[in-house]
Amino acid sequence: MSVQIVETAPFDGQKPGTSGLRKQVAVFQQSHYLENFVQSIFDTVDGFQGKTLVLGGDGRFHNDVAIQTILRMAAANGVGKVMVGQDGILSTPACSCVIRKHHTFGGIALSASHNPGGPDGDFGIKFNIGNGGPAPEKVTDAIYARSLAISRYRFMDAPVVDLSVLGTTQIGGMVVEVFDPVADYADQMASLFDFDAIRDLFHRGFRLRFDAMHAVCGPYARRIVEGMLEAPVGTVIHADPLPDFGGHHPDPNPVNAKDLIAFMNGPDATDMAAATDGDGDRNMIVGQGIAVTPSDSLAVLTANASLVPGYRDGVAGVARSMPTSAAVDRVADALGIPHYETPTGWKFFGNLLDDGRITFCGEESYGTSSRHIREKDGIWAILFWLNLLARTGDSVAGTMQKHWARFGRNYYSRHDYESIDSSRANALMDHLRSRLDSLPGQVFGALTVAEADEFAYTDPVDGSVSEHQGIRIFFTDGSRIVFRLSGTGTVGATLRVYFDRYDAERLDLEPQAALAHLIKAADDIAAIPAFTGLPGPTVVT
Ligand code: VG1
Ligand code: CO
Predict the structure, then answer these.
(1) Which atom of ligand 1 is nearest to the CA of 345?
(2) CA nearest ligand 1 atom 19, residue
(3) pTM over 0.90
(4) Superfamily name and number for 409-540
(5) Which fold has domain 185-407?
(6) CATH 3.40.710.10 describes domain 2-181
(7) Domain boundaries along the sequence of the chain
């Protein structure tokens, strides 16, 4: 085995987005493409020599190839040890859990999360730091800058490592430990939740349908839900991870998981259903006849924290991404705890969690989690709901009704316009930006603009500033529209338009109807069809 220095040249656009570098598989298959990015990480980050890194992915197409490449590059760059999930499998939350538990230098997670997989799908890579969370912007910016100047990378000429067998081997001077990707994570879940109460719930006949969408959570859910919690075998469906996720879009929302929604609206509906995404950090909670919005889920979990052993000592504070509905803010106000508003993307929660300012955080994009790790956590959220229902004996729908009756309801929806031309998308945003000062006072149907701005965030812990994080339009009735461009798509641009309207009285409206005035106003303000060339959104959640 010997270290090779391979000559290379920079690629355009290896800029990490909302959550790491995400591109089509074909892009990653170009020779030197992954290597350049990985070497850019090693060239940028200090102090990993001789230390341990965690490595694994969601099992999608190209996962196995990429892992072997990264192992050889880690060895050639002087990493002391790499802990790899067996068969290359490691959910994003489990990666965070393992980094923290074993005090490793950091980790590399391979996933394009909720994006489709397979040879024609997407792939991704993300570097996590020692707190278990995504590297902050200043680190990802530096990695990107390095990728633009790279001219060589280091590679160890070594045989392929068998990842199917637990245990340790060596590549040159580097130790490779193949570990059980579920064990540490399952232990942590058992330490947070009332497993006895949840087991009793299943013994009493409570029925759950857990859709792992042929993605990474299958093995986790089988062991935790069907194993430790003794739910009937068959509770977890689509439980075997597949390289192409069975051809489905592993993004748990009512559009991509429409079969699950139909099932929960039908005669055979179970008491609760849930789904997780490609890399296991997202979750969707469904009751009979009701899909819980992620914004509401965060609010419900916060309001019911005292029912869960891991949070019995109280909630320090909460944070949500800016486009997430303000439902959790109302709970925080009622509890007398601070609430924070961050830009989209989990990396912005890291400092607030590390500093002990918040206990829970979440995003409207089906992501919820807590201080236990530094990523969002799909199974965690599902176990939280099970713990809650086990303790209250209520249903999902009943829980929501009572929550709204107490706090009022934030009607919420997100409209996506996918794969639109990037220049048109930018033109739409520029047009909006140019009108921010003139919008206040303007009337759109029954709505009058109160304020309009472009969200910028100053991190309260380290003072770093992140600009251009979405355009917000507030109306005099307290409702809000947000416009932003996606940072995770791989084809063209995706415009996301978010609607949020609070109602303390009418709690049973259909959300799109409740938001109809706002939706109309968004079209009028931003001329969405004219700019995007689309008559309407491609996805409504
Ligand atoms: C989307 C979501 C964002 C989430 C990100 C990563 O980003 O809106 O809330 O943090 O995906 O989720 P964007 O920039 O496309 O809107 V995951 O599950 O893909 O890591
Ligand atoms: Co994900």
Answers:
(1) 10
(2) 113
(3) yes
(4) Alpha-D-phosphohexomutase, C-terminal domain (3.30.310.50)
(5) Alpha-D-Glucose-1,6-Bisphosphate; Chain A, domain 3 (3.40.120)
(6) no
(7) 2-181, 185-407, 409-540
- 2-181 and 409-540: same fold? no
Q: Which of 323, 294, 309, 317 is nearest to 384 (CA)?
A: 309
CA dist 220 and 283 (Å) reads 14
Residue 399 to residue 470: CA distance in whole angstroms: 32
Contact 501, 515 (CB under 8 A): yes
At a CB cut-off of 8 Å and minimum separation 6, what does 423 contact? none
- Burial of residue 239, with CB atoms counted within 10 A of its CB: 0-12 exposed, 13-18 middle, 19 or more buried: buried
Classify strands 81-89 and 174-179 as parallel, antiparallel or unpaired.
parallel
CA distances from 507 to 58, 246, 301, 502, 540 (A): 39, 38, 19, 10, 21
Q: Tell which atom from ligand 1 comes closest to the C-alpha of 251.
A: 18
Q: Which one of 320, 488, 495, 497 would you pick to mutate in the ligand 1 pocket, going by the greatest count of ligand atoms within 8 A of its CB?
A: 488
Site to probe by mutation for ligand 1, drawn from 293, 365, 483 as the one with most ligand atoms within 8 Å of Cβ, is 365
Ligand 1 pocket list (CB less than 6 A): 18-19, 113-114, 277, 281-282, 321, 344-346, 363, 365, 367, 486-489, 496
Atom of ligand 1 nearest to the CA of 494: 15
Given a contact cutoff of 8 angstroms between Cβ atoms, the answer to whether 478 and 330 are in contact is: no
113 a catalytic residue: yes
With beta carbons less than 8 A apart as the criterion, state whether 84 and 71 touch: yes
The residue nearest atom 13 of ligand 1, judged by CA position, is 486
Q: Quote the DSSP letter at residue 10.
A: P
> What is the crossing angle of helices 378-392 and 183-192, to 10°?
30
CA 124/CA 109 separation, integer angstroms: 8
Distance 450 CA to ligand 2 centre (A): 35
Q: What is the pLDDT along the chain (541 residues), one digit of tens a residue?
A: 789 999 999 998 898 887 789 999 999 999 999 999 999 999 999 999 999 999 999 999 999 999 999 999 999 999 999 999 999 999 999 999 999 999 999 999 999 998 889 999 999 999 999 999 999 888 999 999 999 999 999 999 999 999 999 999 999 999 999 999 999 999 999 999 999 999 999 999 999 999 999 999 999 999 999 999 999 999 999 999 999 999 888 999 888 889 999 999 999 999 999 999 999 999 999 999 999 999 999 999 999 999 999 999 999 999 999 999 999 999 999 999 999 999 999 989 999 999 999 999 999 999 999 999 999 999 999 999 999 999 999 999 999 999 999 999 999 999 999 999 999 999 999 999 999 999 999 999 999 999 999 999 999 999 999 999 999 999 999 999 999 999 777 778 999 999 999 999 999 999 999 999 999 999 999 989 989 988 899 999 9
